[in-house]
User: Fold these one by one.
Assistant:
Number 1:
Amino acid sequence: MKFHAVISEFCVAKPLKNKWRNQSRRINCSKYLCFLLMFSIVLLIFLRHLFFFSIDARPSSHHHSKKKIHSLVGESSSQDSCLGRYIYIHDLPMRFNQDLLTNCQVLTRSIDKTSMCEYVQNSGFGPRILSSEASGLWNSNWFWTNQFMLEVIFHDRMKKYKCLTNDSLVASAIFVPYYAGLDLRRYLWGFNTSMRDSSGFDLINWLKQKPQWKTMWGKDHFLVSSRIARDFRRKSDRKSDWGNNMK
Ligand SMILES: *[C@@H]1O[C@H](CO)[C@@H](O)[C@H](O)[C@H]1NC(C)=O
Ligand SMILES: *[C@@H]1O[C@H](CO)[C@@H](O)[C@H](O)[C@H]1NC(C)=O
């Protein structure tokens, strides 16, 4: 009320200079200016509140969520370097990964010069190149690595990641260690589309049973594939079309 009175007083006390002869027009104009002034003041107050509110609110809510995560992990330290970087690895049935390596002969095509079993060793890096085998360019840090082994290499690296967690609620992302490309390699040539798609459906059905899936409907899940995207994006269900339907 007091504020409003000050505004009216200000407006009445300082009318516009006598530029217009028409009195009613002058009053209209000063009313208009008065409204503008009041509106700007209210806007300023509003913005100021908004500004201070956001400055005050940010650290406290951040602090709160930090605390919540710490109590979940069971840590009291406030400097958890893994915060926001935790990863949960799904414990997939062996048919989705390890079995493919154990039965590596099924990955080898008849036209392959080298058995895929050679490349499985050294966590997917393949056999070490001995310096006697090649020119002096190669020293003992080089391997004969097959291009389709990225899935194996990445899975092995992921197992050694320092911010792993067994509590998927704390995890920022969920890794699905499925060897999609190696699995598909078995059926890419000469098999009907239902054979090529079957492992993908099998995986999805397995994942959908897990509580981790229901949290974000899989949007926080990731997997690594060593094959190009086109191999997983078949255009139609005609047998002659390339790849499977995993997308
Ligand atoms: C998760 O649980 C398994 C078995 O219960 C254990 O071997 C592993 O070390 C645990 N991992 C972490 C990151 O706590
Ligand atoms: C696809 O091939 C498999 C064996 O290779 C066979 O058992 C299956 O019936 C075939 N499916 C269709 C839809 O033709």
Number 2:
Amino acid sequence: MYKFYCVFLAIVSAAIVSAGKEKIMLNLKKESWISDNDFKAIIKLSFPFSLCCNAYVKGKTLGVDVLFNQFIKNFKYEYTVQSLSYDCHAYFGLASSENDMMNKVKERVPTSISTTELLLIIDDKITSNSSILDVSIYKNSNVNIISRSGYWTLSENYLFPRVFKKVKRLKELRHKRGIVDLQGRQLQVAAFYNPPFCYLSTTINQTINKIDGQFFLANDDRELDGIETKLFLLMSKRLNFTWKIRKPNHYFRYGRPNGSNWEGGMIGQLFRNEV
Ligand SMILES: *[C@@H]1O[C@H](CO)[C@@H](O)[C@H](O)[C@H]1NC(C)=O
Ligand SMILES: *[C@@H]1O[C@H](CO)[C@@H](O)[C@H](O)[C@H]1NC(C)=O
Ligand SMILES: *[C@@H]1O[C@H](CO)[C@@H](O)[C@H](O)[C@H]1NC(C)=O
Ligand SMILES: *[C@@H]1O[C@H](CO)[C@@H](O)[C@H](O)[C@H]1NC(C)=O
């Protein structure tokens, strides 16, 4: 099944790009500022699973030609140029300046999709205050940026706020997979007394994130018991997060819908972004 899929994909995409490939393959003598080995590694780390790529090129300089040639040489799968295939999650952008690059990203790349992988190469210097390093452009996508003045990688998309980190060694460009590490962040959680699932009952009144509420003290082994509570504690240990458990206000457990709003209960807490 897997083999069949690969063959099929190769045939379909070969038909798309083979027309332009020969012409683009210029015999360029100019040396690139990225070595071939590094280029290969950058592609592999930025697109670990993609068997295809959407490529965008902006700028008609010799530098851009050299880099694009290098991409053609080192990207082992098929790619489309200047057109868009949403089936393919990998996006390669190459530009001579950061402004050209930014417009392309904003226009063309579905950055809200969390599986989107972006590799941007800018044939220019950028600084840590450059607008191409503005995190908000990239929403939920995975991003590596390569420039003449350094390489940057965007932190994982499950942990806010996201930040760009300057890379010291190439392998830091790898996007993390597998078990999530929430790095001790505090989650706001909802629960109510509901044996045998949850025995939490003693609360104190507190204001957290500017919202008043009752929070379970959870400082007693008899209360930190119950099937769901135990599972929750295991999750918090494994995923490395801390927590505060907010009791639903009002008398309802899950709440009641009322037109455009939700009254009380745990769903009400979700609805109001309290948890
Ligand atoms: C960005 O930082 C550099 C120094 O690192 C500075 O020279 C430049 O003026 C700054 N640019 C902006 C737009 O803040
Ligand atoms: C959990 O997060 C803390 C805080 O960021 C970190 O120091 C620690 O190494 C993490 N623990 C594990 C097991 O990843
Ligand atoms: C805590 O808040 C609840 C409801 O908001 C209120 O009924 C209760 O009296 C408060 N307890 C204290 C000790 O202030
Ligand atoms: C719905 O619930 C909200 C919050 O309790 C309340 O302010 C609002 O008046 C209710 N709306 C209706 C139509 O009952």
